[in-house]
Amino acid sequence: MTSVLVYGAYGHTGRFVVAELRRRGFEPILSGRDAAKLPGGRPASVDDPASLDRALDGVAAVINCAGPFAATAVPVIEAAARAGVPYVDVAAEIEANLDTFALDIDTVVVPAMAFFGGLGDLLATAAMGDWTAADEIHVAYALSGWRPTAGTLAAGQVSRDRRDGRRVRFADGWLEHRDDALPTLEWTFPAPLGPQPVFGEFSMADVVTIPRHLRVPSVTSYMTVNAAKDLFAGGERDSAESFVVDVVVRSGGEERRAVARGQDIYAVSAPLAVEAVERILSGRTTAKGVASAGEIFDAADFLRALAPHISVELR
Ligand SMILES: NC(=O)c1ccc[n+]([C@@H]2O[C@H](COP(=O)([O-])OP(=O)(O)OC[C@H]3O[C@@H](n4cnc5c(N)ncnc54)[C@H](OP(=O)(O)O)[C@@H]3O)[C@@H](O)[C@H]2O)c1
Fold it and tell me: Is 120's C-beta closer than 6 angstroms to any atom of ligand 1?
């Protein structure tokens, strides 16, 4: 049986990833920093490279679910490179994603392989179809609610600290930090949702995954206002939360669209990450080294494989 190390295995997202690996016939090897939460697993600390090397011994790949990734991504990637095995993570921290993309590594490394980052990138890449460049890409998120985990809140805080509390957007071909408030506008989602108030330039990992490989000077994310407000209101996770991700690509007055629908942004991150590992291990990749989802996978084919977890419509 092919074994895959899950770092951060006992976290909320890590548990979904472990279950998805089992469901697909992999042997998940559980790892993380707290030995007490890992009976029978392989405890390892990002401050102790030898412990990571021991954890990675004999595995075929590693999925890192331990965030904030500012602390975990580089040490786990370096250990994966020493072991010569591919690495996938679910990081939604723009700064950590940038650190990862800046690495010079020969083994396959795919950061942000989750709901935020990977999914938008795959949708944008599939929507582009035969276009080689676009004028603008918009990624609009409608979440029926957004009760975050402690890991999400901690990662958001680390990200904000790393950019001195400023926000970030990708416009005119550059990542730009800004001090002004987010614009509020209306985004018309496909029926039955229709027009919804959203925060514009609510930048998610899409602003770094997409421009990495698609020729486009402007990538803008949007988030429904109710979900953005939920994020800071606290409360228990609600797995019934549903989502619509509406991606619009414009080029020379023409428009193409890809829409994804599903439930529970944490749960669906597991099939995204595990599908990526399965494709990397079976050689279904189009790039080497560090790459984003849209860059390294056949985007339309990958999205089709996500059913029934995520349903996708390309227009
Ligand atoms: N891109 C996406 O769409 C997406 C989707 C899901 C999750 N995520 C991200 O994934 C991360 C985890 O989310 P979650 O929902 O699983 O949160 P969670 O339930 O709070 O779990 C966080 C996990 O990370 C571990 N961890 C934190 N700092 C660590 C460190 N320095 N060294 C080793 N382990 C560390 C924690 O271990 P301890 O208990 O020992 O602290 C725990 O296992 C967050 O950053 C979140 O933003 C992103």
Answer: no
3-state secondary structure 143-201: ECCCCCCHHHHHHHHHHHHHCCCCEEEEECCEEEEECCCCCEEEEEECCCCEEEEEEEC
Ordered structural domains, the chain, with CATH: 3-114+267-298 (3.40.50.720), 116-263 (3.30.360.10)
Q: Which residues contact 23 (CB under 8 A, 6 or more apart)?
A: none
Beta-bridged to residue 5, according to DSSP, are: 29, 62
pLDDT in tens, 46-94: 999 999 999 999 999 999 999 999 999 999 999 999 999 999 999 999 9
* Lookup: tokens for 151: 């890991």
Contact between residue 258 and residue 313 where contact means Cβ atoms under 8 Å apart? yes
Q: How far is the CA of 15 from the centre of ligand 1 (A)?
A: 11
What pLDDT, in 10s, does the model give residues 112-137?
Answer: 999 999 999 999 999 999 999 999 99
Is the distance from CB of 59 to CB of 76 less than 8 angstroms?
Answer: no
Q: Is 129 helix (H, G, I), strand (E, B) or coil?
A: coil
